[in-house]
Design brief:
Elements (H helix, E strand, L loop, with lengths): L1 H5 L2 E2 L19 E3 L1 E6 L7 E4 H14 L12 H23 L7 H12 L5 H11 L3 H23 L6 H11 L8 H28 L1 E4 L11
Antiparallel strand pairs: 1-2, 3-4, 3-5
Helix pairs in contact: 2-3, 3-6, 4-6, 7-8
Length: 229
């Protein structure tokens, strides 16, 4: 099954070919490529990720996080590899949130996220040019932003309130670094750093647990995790 999914999807005959003719291999035209397949849980039906979907998701995610240059730039293998990892993680977390009946994201939050996304562009015309050039509809942008918000809400509910850094831990961290406990803002800065590190560790563990229950197959060698090592 995976071998079949790894093949390029082939379109019908080109418009200038006789539709009654048998299709020869050299007349085929590639119109899409499946780069990964996700089954969650592992015995579930396969959900393909196409190169087109991955590219769209990568551009929206990069622009959302300030990478406006990604709006039109060619995305190389490392960028697509990172986008694939992020997209799969989002799918798995969103599936888990749905399974646990986590509340949907309020409509006003979605609209606010969409407004912020638009405002990353210099003008409405620049935003429309991005949509047109990337062949993405605003509805597709909204779907991606909604999923990001849902994933964020779920992760915050799982780990955000579970992280606690004690005063003793802050003092120990300052002493280890040779920093003065009375330095202005030092304790708050260390507390934030320790808290952030713990949140990141818990998120990594959660994602590892979710991936362990799923079957994720990356079909393009240059997009696999070990390709960047």
């Amino acid at each position: 099954m995976a071998g079949m999914l790894a093949m390029w999807l082939v379109a019908a005959l080109a418009a200038d070919l006789d539709p009654g003719r048998a299709q020869a291999p050299d007349e085929a035209r590639v119109v899409e490529r499946i780069v990964a397949v996700v089954r969650n849980p592992s015995g579930a039906a396969p959900r393909p990720i196409t190169l087109t979907l991955l590219t769209e998701e990568a551009r929206v995610a990069l622009v959302s996080h300030g990478g406006l240059g990604a709006a039109t730039a060619e995305l190389d293998a490392p960028a697509l590899r990172a986008a694939l990892r992020g997209l799969v993680d989002q799918w798995l977390v969103a599936d888990e949130a749905r399974r646990l009946l986590v509340d949907e994201v309020p409509r006003d939050e979605v609209l606010e996220a969409l407004r912020r996304f638009r405002e990353r562009f210099a003008s409405p015309a620049a935003y429309q040019a991005f949509l047109s050039g990337a062949d993405i509809s605003e509805a597709e942008v909204e779907v991606t932003l909604t999923r990001e918000l849902k994933v964020q809400r779920y992760l915050e509910s799982r780990v955000g309130r579970a992280v606690r850094v004690t005063d003793a831990e802050v003092t120990a961290a300052l002493e280890k670094r040779g920093a003065g406990a009375g330095a202005p803002g030092a304790r708050q800065a260390v507390r934030r750093q320790l808290s952030g590190e713990r949140v990141a560790a818990q998120v990594r563990q959660l994602l590892a647990d979710l991936r362990a229950r799923a079957d994720v197959r990356v079909l393009v060698p240059e997009l696999r995790e070990d390709a960047g090592r």
